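Page 42, continued from yesterday. The earlier attempt failed because a stray header line got pasted into the input along with the sequence. Redoing it now with the clean sequence only.
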Amino acid sequence: MYKILEKVELNPTVTKMVIEAPFVAKRAKAGQFIILRVSEDGERIPLTIADSNAEQGSVTIIFQIVGKTTMLLNKKNVGEFLPDFVGPLGKPSVIDGNKKVCVIGGGVGCAIAYPTAKAFHEAGADVTTIVGFRNQDLVILEDEFKAVSDKYCLMSDDGSVGEKGLVTNKLEELVLAGEKFDEVIAIGPVIMMKFVCLTTKKYEIPTTVSMNPIMIDGTGMCGCCRLKVDGEMKFACVDGPDFDGHKVDFDEAMSRNAAYRDFELKEREDTCNLFSKEVQ
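This time it went through. Structure tokens are written below.
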């Protein structure tokens, strides 16, 4: 059993939890993920490791409350337990060798972008971070990003915080101003990563993306997380989650991610109704 040590609401739809998981914390690296269950008969969901503390034996996860399982997870409180918390899974992000990088995060994807930016910073790289949100109310991890960034750029769709515009607008502005990045790392909605890669391809900047498709077992056995990369089938759980963004078939990835949308909406609606009855 894995004890919840801390729970913080980062914004109305995003929650941070610190979980007691010493064996996971001891081996966790930037870019890796865990798979958890909220109950013994619950579904398995993957969540990226947002941070870890080997001495404390804790792992931090940050999740958006979008479906049944994340709604149930968000009902858990400090002192309660999770039955399963498996990891670290996936290949760690490649950090060594880059002197100047740009880490781009979109929405809750910033929870994944942060440990990557932190790892590059600790390795001595010059780190520019560009983070984008729909509006001011959804901003997360601002202080954390500033602490590991040589340059921090905050963007919002409506201009309510930072600069108005998309992360790709800022990226292209920096490149045209003379910034030369050894690598761009983009993490967030698939559509955002696609357009970041279209931008960097114009300027021949190596680009890595972190893919988080539908996943069940996390060991490559179920095949649910398959992606087409450079025309070949890859499994995000064992071959990734990081891939060369210029080789990923983003359109196919978006289509696969939407395959169970109606089912997921029905599960969310049923869970909301169940919570409403409990309140009554």
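Notes: The chain is about 30% helix and 30% strand.
Reminder to self: strip header lines before submitting.
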